[in-house]
Amino acid sequence: MKDIILVIALVAALILCAVLLAVHLKGKKRIRSLTKSIDTFLKDGTLTDLATDEGEFSHLQNNICDLETKLVFEREYTKREAKSNTEFISDISHQLKTPLAGLRLYCEMQHSTAPDAHTEKELALIGKMEKLIHSILRLEKLRSDTYSMQFAEVQLAEIFAELQTEFSALFAQKTITVHGNAALRCDKMWLRESLGNVIKNACEHTEPDGKVEINIEQAEKSVLVTIQDNGGGVKAEELSMLFRRFHRSEDASPDSAGIGLAITRAIVEKHHGTVFAENYANGLRVSMYFPVIDANLKL
To answer: Long-range contacts: 46-52, Cβ < 8 Å, 24+?
Structure first.
C-alpha cells in the first residue's frame, strides 16, 4: 500500500513539474514575442497586438499596447502643434520681411547720397533684425521636422577637423584641440552646424589666447562629445537657460541674438541625443550624448 502511495505521489510530482515547466516555457515564449513586438514598434511604429485571453501577462501586454498608442498620438499631436507654430512664425516673418526690405532700400538710398553714422547704424540694426528672423524661422522649422535629415555614418574627427580649420582662422590666437574619434550615424551638415555653434560660443567667451578642448569618446551604445573652454564658466542660475531661445549671457557679443545654442539643442534632439552644460575648473563644459542607432531603425 505504501509503495502504491509513493508511486502515486511520484507521478503527481512529475506531472506537476511537467506543468510548471510547460508554464515556464510558455511564459518565456510570450516574453520573447512581446520583446520582439516592442522592438518592431521602435523600428517601424507597428503597434503590439492586444491580448484576448486573461492573466497578468495579458494585462501587461495590453498596457504596453495602450502606452504605444498614447506615444503615437502624442507624437502626432506634438508634430501638429510644432507645424502650426512654425506656420504662425513663418507668416509673421514674411509680414516683417516686406517692411524691412523697404526700410533697407530707403536707408541705402539715403546712405548713398548723404552717408553718415546714423544711416550706418540703421543699416546695421536692419541687418541684425533680418538675421534674427532667419534664425528663428530655421529653429522652428527644425522643431517641426520641416527639414529632411539625411543620415549616414560619419567620422566625427573629420567634422571637427573642418571646424578646427574654420575657427582657427576666425580666432587666430585661440588654441583649439581635438582628441579621439567616433563613428556616428547623423546628418553631417546639420550636426556640423550644431557643433560649430558650441565652438563659436566657447571662442567668444574666452580671452584672446583662450583654449577650447574637444573630446570624443566612443562607447558600445553611445557617443559622448564634450567641448570645454577656460573662459571662467557662467553663473549657476544661467546653466539651465543656455539652450533657450533668446537667452543672452551678460558677456555675450552685441551681435548675438541668443538663437545659436537653441538651434544646437534642436539639432542634437533630432539625432535622439541630449545636450547640457556645466561649470568645471575654470571654464564651461558642454556635453552631448548621442545613441548609436541601427541603420534600420526608423528615425
So the answer is: 47/72
Tell whether the model's pLDDT for residue 193 goes beyond 80: yes
* Chain mean position to CA 19: 50
Query: What is the end-to-end Cα distance of the chain in Å, rounded?
Result: 70
- The residues with which 276 forms a beta bridge, in sequence order, are 287
| b/e map 93-131, b = 16+ CB within 10 Å | beeeeeebeeebeebeeeeeeeeeeebeebbeebeebee
SS3 46: coil
Q: Do residues 150 and 179 touch, judged by C-beta distance below 8 A?
A: no
The domains found in the chain, sorted by start residue, are 152-291 (3.30.565.10)
Query: In this structure, are residues 154 and 191 in contact, taking their beta carbons and an 8 Å threshold?
Result: yes
- Given a contact cutoff of 8 angstroms between Cβ atoms, the answer to whether 274 and 208 are in contact is no
- pLDDT value of position 97: 78
- Taking only the tens place, the pLDDT of each residue in 177-190 is 999 999 999 999 99
Edge-to-edge strand order for the sheet containing 283-291?
175-179, 211-218, 222-229, 283-291, 274-280
Q: For residue 236, which amino acid is it? A: A
Residues in the chain: 299
C-beta separation of 151 from 187 below 8 A: yes
